[in-house]
Specification:
By secondary structure, the protein is an alpha/beta fold. It folds into two domains: 115 residues, Transcription Regulator spoIIAA (2-Layer Sandwich); 232 residues, no CATH class. Strands 1, 2, 3, 4 and 5 form a five-stranded mixed sheet that branches. The chain has twelve helices and five strands. α7 runs antiparallel to α12.
Length: 387
């Protein structure tokens, strides 16, 4: 049977203050006994709240238990409701006399409840939000410029032969950036070449000029599209892996260990990745050019009935060497952007699992955004130069 043996009102005598001004608040002593298990049913807290309502001067509740008390989580649920009710009325509940196990469980339940309560954020004005965004952008720009400065200094030391990194790791990174990515790059650019041939044939077929599909596919793939598609694929695959690797090293304090040993993380970790990606991006772009042209060739010859020799001749005439160099310049710039974005986000990530995930996502987004911006700038420069 659930029972509250007695509800007795006592007085708590406060220690005298220096000015001898003291008060005597009322205290409600609650003694619990009997069966407090879930199987016996939970007792509502209305019996105690009635006492609190009838005696509004109560400021504290002391909990006492009998030696024969039987309890489980039902007692914890009852006390948890009581404490929450008293918090609203600004009444303290002293549960130090509970059994050690019950007291520990109750403290855990209260801590979990406090964590789940989100603090109310003060509303910020429009100017405060704008100022915060401007400061965040400024800090991000400073972080990027400092990182680029470190890479520049480390790269100059690399040229002078003063930078040490493991060649085995460098060759493994080169393999990941090149061989492991080659199949996906070839497949995507083959399909892009096919799509270009399909789209071009829709309009050129009206004028009977299907042979100029070779010009469209060849120029578009070699000049821009192959490098852009390759950059997007590498950003999602290699840039994300760079951010995840360095992020995990940052979380496990391996980068701090390198700094303690006097080894620059930029020289030991970042420079090999940048060099590897700058070397492999032009090679991947050349393969992408060939696959794009092959995709257009398959559609034009196999489905549109064009002469294969004539198609290849048109491609050879349309694709100039300058277009190839422009595509390679795109690829080199994209390689730098992807490697720097991945390493920057990885080294500066938060030291937890969520931080590593956010760094990986941010590396991909930053890389792709940088690729689009760089493409626009290079295209504008080529237009000015008349190339």
């Amino acid at each position: 049977m659930l029972a509250i043996k007695r509800l007795v009102f006592n007085e708590i005598i406060m220690l005298e203050k220096l000015d001898f001004d003291y008060s005597i608040p009322k205290t409600l002593i609650v003694k619990l006994e009997g069966d407090w298990q879930i199987s016996a049913g939970l007792l509502p807290i209305t019996e105690i709240t009635a006492q609190l309502t009838s005696h509004p001067d109560i400021r504290q509740i002391n909990l006492n238990v009998s030696e024969e008390l039987q309890w489980d989580s039902g007692l914890i649920a009852f006390l948890f409701k009581l404490i929450r009710e008293c918090e609203q009325k600004k009444i303290q509940v002293d549960h130090k006399n509970l059994p050690p196990g019950a007291q520990k469980l109750l403290e855990i339940a209260l801590k979990v409840h406090e964590k789940n309560i989100l603090p109310q954020q003060p509303r910020e004005s429009f100017f405060e939000k704008t100022g915060d965004k401007v400061l965040q952008i400024y800090q991000s720009l400073c972080l990027i410029l400092n990182f680029l400065g470190d890479i520049t200094v480390s790269f100059s030391r690399t040229i002078k032969g003063k930078v040490y990194f493991r060649w085995d790791d460098f060759m493994l990174i080169v393999k990941r950036c090149g061989v492991d990515t080659l199949l996906l790059v070839c497949l995507i650019n083959l399909l892009v070449g096919m799509i270009l041939a399909f789209v071009g044939s829709i309009q050129l077929k009206i004028f009977g000029a299907q042979i100029y599909i070779a010009d469209i596919v060849g120029i578009a793939m070699v000049r821009v599209l192959a490098a852009v598609m390759t950059g997007i694929i590498v950003s999602g695959r290699i840039g994300a892996s760079f951010a995840a690797e360095l992020g995990m090293m940052e979380s496990s304090e391996e980068i701090d260990a390198l700094k303690t040993l006097g080894v620059s993380p930029v020289e030991f970790l970042v420079i090999p990745r940048v060099i590897a990606l700058v070397i492999m991006m032009p090679i991947l772009t050349i393969y992408a050019d060939l696959m794009g042209i092959l995709g257009g060739f398959i559609i034009s010859v196999g489905m549109l009935g064009l002469n294969p020799i004539e198609y290849l001749n048109h491609t050879q005439v349309a694709v100039q060497l300058s277009f190839v160099w422009i595509g390679l310049i795109h690829s080199i710039v994209f390689g730098v952007i992807i490697a720097v974005s991945g390493c920057l986000r990885g080294i500066n990530c938060q030291r937890n699992a969520a931080g590593v995930g956010m760094a990986t996502t941010s590396a991909v987004v930053t890389g792709i955004t940088g690729i689009v911006i760089a493409t626009a700038i290079i295209t504008f420069i080529c237009q000015i130069l008349g190339v």
